[in-house]
Amino acid sequence: MERSEPLALSFSVRGARPLLVAPLLALPLLLAAGAAHAAPATPAEMNLYTRIAAVNACIARSAGVEFDKAVAIAGETVAQLIQGQHQGQIQQVPGKTLTIEELRKGSINSAVLGAAEVCPKSVPPEVMKKVEAALKQAGKAPAKPPAK
Fold it and tell me: Which of 5, 8, 39, 108 could form a disulfide with 75 if both were Cys (CB 3.0 to 4.6 A apart)?
């Protein structure tokens, strides 16, 4: 029997759904297997995770997501990453496995501070004032908006 259409076009996306979903279902298992021997997150890794959270929050803000939701999602992403890849351990907090709640609080704070640095115009003015006050109290210079 001769086919009038190419084989690739007759391939149903609906029939391929299990094939597309299978790698996604295996991903948590792969991450969990790697986490069994994971070391605490290094300062360099934490800096990377903070930067990723900040960029995610900034992207969400530019898409119209409210600030609290944007930093909560970015923070949750980092908290889950630290828990999954490093078993909740961070080198800067030696000898302690942080709970998911502790990771969330720290990650959300990092996302807020990072967003204040990366996209200060996307941070509500009242939040920016709190960030600047916290940085001043910690003895760090507040982030300056980029020049136009």
Answer: 108
Q: How far apart are CA 36 and CA 9, in angstroms?
A: 43
Which residues are within 8 A (CB) of 139 and not within 5 positions of it... i.e. 6 or more apart? none
**Global model pTM greater than 0.85:** no
Size of the chain in residues? 148
pLDDT tops 90 at residue 64: yes
Q: Which residues contact 83 (CB under 8 A, 6 or more apart)?
A: 100, 103
Task: Give me the residue spans of the domains in the chain.
Answer: 39-137
Q: Which residue spans within 59-103 are E strands per DSSP?
A: none
Q: Which residues contact 61 (CB under 8 A, 6 or more apart)?
A: 67, 70, 115, 119, 122
4 pLDDT exceeds 70? no
Go through 35-56 and write b for each residue having 16 or more CB atoms within 10 A of its CB, e for each that does not.
eeeeebbeeebbeebbebbbbb
